[in-house]
Design a protein that fits this description.
A hairpin with a 5-residue loop joins strand 3 and strand 4. The chain is 22% helix and 31% strand. With 85 residues, it is α+β, with helices and mostly antiparallel strands.
Length: 85
């Protein structure tokens, strides 16, 4: 599950692939924002823990698992014909 966390006063968002379900991530975020926990704690798919202070969370985006692409992918015909002249 891809999770993006926006942190106040930070120029970049935190992006991680989590093995947790969308419901588990949503529950952890809700607990942190409700004050039940001072930190939002999530674990990525490599077992690393990501901790974000609950009062610094700007937004959390919970998405689908990212598909890892290998190689250059398919080139469009216009790109190929533009290279061969």
């Amino acid at each position: 599950m891809e999770v993006k966390i926006g942190v106040q006063h930070a120029p970049r968002e935190i992006v991680l692939e989590s093995g947790q379900s969308a419901e588990e991530v949503e529950s952890a975020v809700a607990d942190a924002l409700a004050g039940k926990a001072q930190l939002l704690s999530l674990t990525d798919d490599k077992g690393r823990k990501v901790l974000v202070p609950a009062d610094k969370i700007a937004y959390v985006e919970i998405g689908e698992p990212a598909v890892r692409r290998v190689g250059f992918g398919a080139l469009s015909t216009s790109c190929v014909t533009g290279l061969v002249r």
